[in-house]
Amino acid sequence: MRFSTYFPTSIDTHFKLVHHLHGLIADGVFNGHSSKRRKHFEHFDQLQQNQSLREMDSLPEAIVQYILSNITNAKDIASCNCVSNRFKDSMPYIKSIYFPRSIFDNLTHTQTPDHIVTQILSSISHLENLIVYCPFTSTGLTSWLSLVGPTLKNLELRMDNLVDQNSSNDSLSKLECLQAARNLESLKLWGVLMLRSPKWDVCQKLKNLEIVGAKLEDSVLVEALRATPNLTQLVLLGCEGLRTVWIELLELKDCKLDFYGLGSCSLTLKAPKIENLEVQGCSWIRVRETNCLKTLSIANNAGRVYMVEFSKLTALESLSIRGVQWCWDAISKIVQLATEVKHLYMKIEFTGDFEALLPFPEIDFVEFFKSHPKLKSFDVHGAMFAALCQKNSLKNVDSSFVIPCLEEVVITVRSPLNAEQKMSTLESLVMFAKKLKKMKIKILQMKSGHSSADDFFEEICRFRYMNHKIISIE
Length: 474
What we know:
The protein is of the alpha/beta class. Among the domains are: 1-59; 359-474, Rossmann fold. It has helices at 9-26, 35-57, 61-69, 74-80, 85-89, 113-122, 138-148, 168-177, 218-226, 328-337, 365-370, 382-388, 419-432, 452-466, and strands spanning 96-99, 129-132, 154-158, 186-194, 208-216, 233-240, 244-248, 254-259, 265-270, 276-280, 282-287, 295-305, 307-310, 318-326, 343-350, 377-380, 408-413, 438-443, 471-473. Strand 17, helix 13 (419-432) and strand 18 (438-443) form a beta-alpha-beta unit. The longest helix is centred in the first third of the chain and has 23 residues, at 35-57. The two termini are 51 Å apart. Mean pLDDT is 84; it is low at 1-33.
């Protein structure tokens, strides 16, 4: 039976009202009112509090523990100690606790945040989830993990070591403290400075590792990942200082990598069970075991993509490739491998192997869709669309040709050049995609010094009018 059956709405409402009024009085909201009115509120507060406490005392022990298990903010948990002895006695059963960034901003007495957190954690017997965004020291973290480390499953820490470049020793000390939590399944770290490898024992139970905002060396990352061999999920976001990234994780299924800098990193990934992969900021990408890969996203907004090396992408369902400049060999190779893809997103401005920015070569419309027969959604940006609209692109169309599965198309048009070929391509998509349900045409920053842009736009509007049930214009 649901817990809500035992917990009437009126009790919940009374408790919230009491807590709210008590907070207002304590914060001095009524200081400007008359003493008579203030006494009225205090009297009402007392009556409601007494009634709520009587109702709370009648609740079964399991319900009280359930209520507390859904309160995670450390300030609220501390306040619950003042509600009743039953609430205070239920503190050891809390499973999750969260210390917000500003929780100790107004601390005036001599106690330190480290000491207060230690006091709260010492009253919890089986903590599983700990999130700390407020400032702390390595000494404090050592103390906390000595209390709750053995039972922790999920730990999230805001390290704040990137601002002060002289804090590398403190950052290393904090990282080395983590080995006290041997049963961790998930670890999330924010603002990490890792210039030397932390002395970690092998974390056999750790399945999820997320590092957001980090400065680290290639060898340090290798050593850290060597200590976490059973990861199934790896997230590295906003990481700088890396040049050659080598990741070997045999159980890895989900991987999201975002390397900050010039976009010139090289990545080698060995993960035979990988299912979802996102990479940002790499010029050379090598992933050789891809039999399980279902979702692939490659982007480089700061540099060029020179090379992608994958094995067969037979399980791939979704492919996204983005960036300012890709070598044509990299584009053609990844598109040719993704023959089973169902969702394709392409936003690449230029091709070209070196400094010169070149337009895409001509792409045969019929061959492209024949080689991707399962394609259901297709989002194509200016340059790629223009390549499909070349003069000879539609020369191989015959009456038997169909695009069997395509249901949704998004096309971004940036230039009125070759307007006739572009209109022909749009008409062909509507004609041959028998299951097409939606086509969105985006007109983006189209600039022209003559009337060709206006004429092209009029043609698109006329085309939309003829197919208004499926076509829209932005």
